[in-house]
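Annotated sample (chain length 293).
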Amino acid sequence: MEKNIIYKDVELKNFNSWKVGGKAEQFLICDDKEKLASYIKTKKIKLPITYLGLGSNLLIRDGGVKGAVVVMHGGLNTINKDRELIYVEAGVSCSKLSKFAAKEGLKNSAFFAGIPGTVGGSLAMNSGCYGSETWDYVEKVLMIDLNGDQFIRNKSDFKINYRDLKKPIDDESFLAAWFNFPEGNKKDAENKIKDLLTHRKNSQPLNWPTAGSTFRNPKNNFAAKLIEDCGLKGYQIGGAQVSEKHANFIINLGNATALDIENIIIYIQKVVFKQKKIQLLREIKIIGEAIDH
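Output written by the structure step:
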């Protein structure tokens, strides 16, 4: 598909990591911030606007998404050194940011290699793993609002929580960010990324369509352990299954619908609450319209 062209009724299954979901009413792959701003200002793209990166950490319902879906990955992919900071656009993968920082001799970026999404999504959800979170290293961000205006906000403008972020104004979205990683050793940083990727490969079902971790870890506990202790590994609804390899991952066996996956999520929450008296909160975001099957 060509970039900066507005398409209609585009299947979203190929634009999210679970490989499910309906159509986007409007669809645009963006590689030009000014063009996007112009489309918003002139109302060429419909509201609401949903921004997508790699479509991980996300469940798109079978009825599709109303308004415009704007895909950043494959478009807004600039990353460079801006004095002591790293400037990175929203469509850059977290893995690419991790490796870029390591090559620059900066440390503490390795955890980004374990986040299967883009910087834009990582900012919006305060993604993290292995004890670190995205906003630990954000200095400032470039935003766009529903008027098509672009502006910079500082970290202090946001309320930052575990796997959650409150924007000062909900209708603003991320176009880019400036990250500040401490000085380190290039070789050490690159080795840490290799170790983390090896651990990820050995512990997660990466050969199946998934959206990453389904639930947040409760305080002083692990979602995967709770799910496993409730005997739910391998539990299946339709074409969706709780992974046998890592219980906090739900996999698409090939023919899953979004409804199959959502029903498993709800079932896990009910069982864990009944057996453990702990309410599991979703890490993944659910968007779009539900339909009856």
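Annotation: Residues 7-71 form a domain with the Uridine Diphospho-n-acetylenolpyruvylglucosamine Reductase; domain 2 fold (CATH 3.30.43.10).
Annotation: Residues 50 and 69 are 5 Å apart (CA to CA).
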